[in-house]
Task: inverse folding
């Protein structure tokens, strides 16, 4: 009868909304790789990594991101090395560069495998990668048990907690802050769509994470707040606290439409999570979404076209997709990116790297 | 003992399977419940009495009644003190 014999005292820790993200090598990332300071930092970090590797003797090293630490792992000759690209190669799609930058090529030439999220970028990298590098299309995945469609009672309870009417038309602009996220365009489109939205309309943004200090990001947040006031939209816009990622399922689900309008973008987890919650999602029409579940299951709008974005908002609010259509989006995401699927794929990648 | 427990206004509850979180949108923090706390919460909000909830948790988890009741009292007191729940 006992389901879980493990017992722990029920009251757990309480956490602040402010995330404790801290990039230890942030300064090093900002340095140019040819400077003496960078090389000194790289040598020191590599030596530290060698000591750690000697102590723990890992079967492999997986660097998540092509940043300073990834370069330090390569410099330390940690083998086998797997590198996740995570948006670091956006320039191949959106920039003028048609080949890998020398710094990235050097890193990848020391790696056994490279993981990259967008299917089209994986194809591209296979043609550009140094000889012998295995390139895998790989995304960190979505937990379909957490990012699931909500019951009506849950949805209503969450709206009540936010003091939103049960019948409101709610849009969530679900990303972080900074000029590339284009929340200003989302706000402009919402303002344009507002008279044509069927029930009391609300647009939800997240507050700026308190740990963020970058001036450009803070300025973007303050600009959109000011625009909200200037457009007379204060009563239609809600500012949510910066919440832990796992709780985003509530916000996707209480929204009628999720908008992710970052330009450029790579392959956002936000979109996969919202699709997994069976929500309609609006995204910009971007090259990195080509031949993917995002292209197939989201409403795509021309980048920078506020009129088209507003029209999509109205259209989705007035004619919501059928339940079967939304369920198909969830099924497609989970088939490829659900946690068990991703774990199995990663285990295969690791095994292949270890075997050489 | 019959006990009526409910979320305070402005608090969102998310069931994550064996765990759960409570988000207080007004105060700006969140609170995690482990498997024991989550099941306890579900039982109370489903209308179980404290004694019935304790009886079920004793079936589910390897714990003695004195320890369990003590821990649950602490949990309820903390949920009330932080304004996440009302208990009547």
Result:
């Amino acid at each position: 009868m006992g389901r879980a014999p493990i017992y722990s005292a029920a009251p757990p820790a309480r956490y602040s909304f402010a995330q404790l993200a801290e990039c230890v090598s942030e300064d090093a990332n900002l340095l140019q790789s040819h400077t003496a300071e960078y090389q000194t930092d790289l040598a020191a970090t590599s030596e530290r990594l060698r000591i750690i590797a000697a102590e723990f003797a890992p079967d492999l090293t997986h660097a998540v991101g092509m940043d300073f630490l990834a370069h330090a792992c390569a410099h330390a000759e940690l083998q086998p090395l797997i590198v996740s690209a995570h948006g670091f190669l956006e320039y191949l799609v959106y920039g003028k560069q048609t080949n890998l930058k020398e710094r990235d090529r050097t890193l990848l030439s020391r790696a056994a495998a490279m993981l990259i999220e967008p299917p089209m970028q994986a194809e591209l990298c296979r043609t550009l990668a140094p000889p012998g590098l295995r390139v895998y299309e790989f995304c960190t995945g979505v937990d379909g048990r957490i990012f699931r469609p909500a019951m009506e009672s849950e949805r209503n309870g969450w709206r009540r907690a936010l003091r939103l009417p049960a019948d409101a038309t709610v849009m969530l602009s679900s990303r972080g802050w900074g000029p590339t996220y284009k929340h200003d365009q989302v706000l402009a489109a919402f303002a344009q769509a507002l008279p044509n939205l069927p029930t009391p309309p609300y647009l939800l943004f997240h507050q700026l994470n308190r740990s963020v200090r970058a001036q450009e990001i803070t300025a973007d947040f303050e600009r959109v707040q000011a625009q909200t006031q200037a457009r007379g939209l204060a009563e239609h816009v809600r500012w949510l606290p910066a919440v832990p990622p796992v709780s985003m399922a509530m916000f996707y689900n209480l929204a009628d439409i999720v908008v992710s309008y970052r330009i450029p973008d790579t392959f956002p987890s936000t979109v996969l999570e919202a699709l997994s919650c069976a929500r309609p999602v609006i995204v910009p029409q971007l090259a990195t979404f080509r031949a993917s579940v995002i292209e197939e299951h989201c409403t795509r709008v021309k980048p920078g076209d506020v009129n088209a974005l507003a029209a999509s908002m109205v259209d989705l609010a007035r004619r919501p997709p059928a339940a079967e259509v939304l369920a198909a989006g969830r099924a497609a995401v989970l088939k490829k990116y659900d946690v068990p699927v991703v774990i199995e794929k990663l285990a295969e990648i690791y095994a292949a790297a270890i075997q050489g | 003992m019959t006990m009526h427990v409910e979320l305070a206004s402005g608090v969102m509850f998310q069931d994550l399977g064996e765990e759960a979180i409570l988000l207080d949108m007004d105060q700006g923090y969140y609170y995690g419940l482990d498997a024991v706390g989550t099941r306890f919460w579900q039982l109370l909000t489903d209308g179980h009495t404290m004694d019935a909830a304790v009886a079920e948790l004793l079936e589910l988890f390897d714990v003695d009644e004195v320890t369990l009741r003590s821990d649950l009292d602490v949990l309820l007191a903390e949920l009330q003190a932080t304004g996440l729940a009302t208990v009547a």
